[in-house]
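Our consortium's second objective concerns turning raw sequence data into structural hypotheses that experimental partners can test. To show how far this objective has progressed, the report includes one record in full. It was chosen at random from the queue rather than selected for favorable results. The single chain below, 198 residues long, was entered without modification.
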Amino acid sequence: MAIEETLLRNFNATEEHYDEGDVIFSESSVPEYYYQIVTGEVKLNSFSDKGKEFIQNIISGKSCFGESMLILGKPYPVNAVALSDCTVLKLASKEFFVLLRDHPGVFVDMYSRLADNTFEKQKLMRVITDPNPEERIIEIMELLKESHINKEKFSLEIPHSKEQLASLTGLSLETAISAIDKMEQKNILKIQGEKIFY
């Protein structure tokens, strides 16, 4: 879900530029801004006690991130890190809540998107506990394909690398690569160079 850039700027949103690898906000920090991508990609991640990265989500395409914690007023449970060079609009929390009050349609759209995110997270939690690595990867790809207009086989280019798919599903990279190779042999997906099509 994205708020019109013009509307954000009318409420004094500022444009910030981040280089790949820059931290936009850190786990346990208190939300102060609404963030929306203008260009680039951002990953939401956390780390296990042993230092293993778990990617919660990868966001791109003029989407917002971290808004649920801003609305709740609770510290972030994840880090937001620029996955590529990116530009982000930041709107201070006070102005954000005024915007929602003055534009109830934006609030309804945001509420709907947050409900959809909750649904997707519940589906992911179910699949991440599945002992079958192929099923975990298929579920991620199915979620990606839900919003894709063309539902034909191999019509969706997966926007994530094998390493990112591993992290999104809680698998080791080796297990994910092995599962992806098996899925190609079973004609579940197609690999062309570094790209995966589902």
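The partners drew two points from this record. The beta strands are 14-18, 23-25, 33-39, 41-47, 53-60, 64-65, 79-82, 86-92, 190-192, 195-197. The mean pLDDT is 90. Both points have been shared with the crystallography group to help prioritize constructs.
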